Structure formats: C-alpha cells, structure tokens
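tmp note - Ribokinase
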Amino acid sequence: MSAPLDLLVLGNAIVDLIARTDEKFLEQQGVPKGAMHLIDEDRAESLFSVMGPATIVSGGSGANTAVGAALLGAKTGFIGKVRDDELGGLFAHDLKATGVSFAVPAASEGPATARCFILVTPDGERTMNTYLGACQGLSPADVDEATVASARTVYLEGYLWDPPAAKEAFRKAAKIAHNAGNAVALTLSDAFCVGRYREEFLGLIRDGSIDILFANIGELKSLYETDDEEAALKALRDERNQRGMHLLGLVTRSAEGAMVVKGGEIRSIEASPVHEVVDTTGAGDLFAAGFLAGHARGLDNVSSARLGALAAAEVIQHIGARPQHDLVALAKARGLL
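out:
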C-alpha cells in the first residue's frame, strides 16, 4: 500500500531555460508575446543558439505546483516522463530535493527530456517555447493505481491533453481517484490550450470528471468564448455537472487577485503585495500550490486562496518558477498559517 499523499500531480516533466529579452527579439523570432508555443527539436536548437544567457532550472507547470505545495508542508508526489539523459537526471534530482516523490522510470530510448525556452520581457511577461520531447511518452502504464488512490487530491495539468497517451493517463488517474473517493483538480494551463480542447475540457467538467478547476481570467474567457469577464465568471458560477453538483473554481486575475467560485457564489481575494514584478513564470502554478496546500491543512477555500496568492506573489519577484524564500515562514508572518 502506498503511503498517503496530500497531493499527486500529473504533468509534463520539463527543464526550463529562462532568459531576459525584449519585444524586438520576440518579433524577430516570430513569437507572439505571452503565450506557450509548441516547437520541434530543430526549432529548439535554433532558438537556443540565438537567445541570451539562460538560467536553467527544473520546471513544468504541474511540477512547479508539486514543489510549491511540498514547500508549504503538503506530502506531494509527481507523475511525469523524462529521458535517461543529463536534463532528465537534473529534473529528477531537483524534484526529489524539494521532498516531492517521483518514481516514474526514465525512458531509455526515444526523444530527449523536454525543455521550455522562457523569454522574459522587461514587464515581467513570459513567452514560452516548449519542446515536449520525452513528455509525450507518458502513458497509462506510468500511472500506479495504489499511488493515485492514496492521494487526497489528484491535480492534472491541462497541457497533458496534447499527447494522446498522456490524455489516457489523465483519464485513468481521474477514474482511480474518484473510485477511491478522492478529489480531482484540473488547471486549464493556457488560453491556446483551451482553444484547442475547449469542448473536451467542458466535457470533463460537465460529466463530473473534475471537482476543482484552476484558470486565469484569460483562460476562463477562452473556455466560455467571451470577452466579458463577468460573463465568464457567471458561466463558471452556474456550471453544474450531470449529478447537479457545483464545481469549485479558482480564477486568478493577476494584480487584481483571485476569485473563489463555489456553490453559486463568487468571493474576491486580494492579491498579495509585490515590491517588483520580475518574472511572471509560475504565478498560476504557485497559486494552485498554495491553495492545495491550504486545502490539505483543512483551511477553508478563501483562506486557501489567500495562501495561494502569497505563493504566487513570492515567485513573480524573481527569475524562475520555484520559490526562493521560505513559504511557510512568509505565510506565518502574514497570519495565514
């Protein structure tokens, strides 16, 4: 029997290469600002050859959430796929060093470990160019039933909906979790990802596969195909699954904080104070980490969202999507723990 987990994350195992740049470079490279773009290996090599000096750190949206939750005291595990290469070893080492359980065997053949080239402009906005590589090899065989059943919450990264085998791993994990009486959360990940799979994501919500939804306001507007923020929030508020149950929705709104949507009600949460926005990479990931860590501690939804806002505020004040300060100490100083 697997040791109980507070949180189990399924996500893309990616190593981030983060570099400062400007809008002119993005234009020269033909890269629309602020989104995530999937690239092939040739494009990855080409981009790496012309981008500036990079900070290299283990990343991936779901992995960032797993690390953040672990640093807030949650017992956390991760399921993702790397290759048995240098970057794959770096990813596994970094994840385990933060206390996250990671036992999925590395692939011995096939594409290299995934990497994401993150270009950060002076306003702190990040533009991501992702070579998925070995990530696409994640399959249902990598989803251990006992591990999934042991987790109070299973958190699924929306980006996993791109590779077909990973999609099936996603569905398998959701089914195991619900059969064990546990919760399933989904992050929409990116507005372009929502655009590719809108009907499928709505289907997951409405057939009861998902209990908790994380999104930023842009992703939510894409989900409901509206430019009106209030209309998007109202649509989420009124959403019910086929059993008539309301979804728990957490919607981030950058400097305007976040919204907790549950049971036909919407609660507003203020953003935590920020001295300077340096790099917004991982803000949504760490918001989810804080919320889920608070949830694991038995905090109510609003208190958990405030913890999420604190974690998000910490990570946008430095380069990289992994916290650099003691989140528990910060939370205690703010009276959140």
